[in-house]
């Protein structure tokens, strides 16, 4: 019984694996975060793009660490990096906590090795990034004033105010769901074609 429980506990090797894939995830995340500064639409669609291109590190992490806490730890590492870089907000904290919690729940219910379970966890995890643009809808005037004080160009703020409609809020939520599903399917195909043959998973 003790031996069985010990196999479910995160160990040093697991923590290193999670750390590596979390770093890869954040690099992808950061690239699209920078691109979001080019145009407000890119920022609103950012969670969807991140989900589409980060399927490989997330799903590989799930394949290699089939234990409770891996998704939560990946979210925590991402949140800490956001905090260090000054991009951290209370809203993204709330969305990531909820997203990671739901991700862990789906993995636990499906036995950690399930593709569908891990895909559902990835969808939840990807929805956590909606906490970055969400302040535009949740605290509109205060947020627009804040980014103006931080030096955001007037034309960017005007465009953001124009495009942040109720319809775009739906797009914000839908984009990471669609992106995560596509990213997971692409990763599954790569698992079979490359990773399994190389003995990575």
Short description:
With 201 residues, this protein is mainly alpha-helical. The chain is elongated and about 50 Å long. The two termini are 27 Å apart.
Helix segment tally: 11
> How large is the share of residues in beta strands?
under 5%
Largest sheet: none
Question: What is the string of helix and strand elements?
Answer: HHHHHHHHHHH
The chain-level structural class is: mainly alpha
Specify Rg, calculated over alpha carbons: 18 Å
Q: What fraction, in percent, of the residue positions are helical?
A: over 70%
Shape annotation: elongated
Number of domains: 1
Low-confidence stretches: 1-6
Distance between the termini: 27 Å
**Arithmetic mean of pLDDT:** 88
Number of strands: 0
Describe the protein.
By secondary structure, the protein is mostly helical. It has one domain (11-194). The chain is 79% helix and 0% strand. It is built from eleven helices and no strands. Helix 3 (40-53) runs antiparallel to helix 7 (115-127). It is elongated and about 50 Å long. Mean pLDDT is 88; it is low at 1-6.
Keywords:
201 residues, mainly alpha, 0% strand, disordered N terminus
How do the strands and helices of this protein lay out in sequence?
Layout: H1 2-6, H2 12-35, H3 40-53, H4 55-64, H5 70-84, H6 90-110, H7 115-127, H8 135-138, H9 140-149, H10 154-163, H11 166-198
Helix pairs in contact: 2-3, 2-4, 2-5, 3-7, 3-11, 4-11, 5-6, 6-7, 7-11
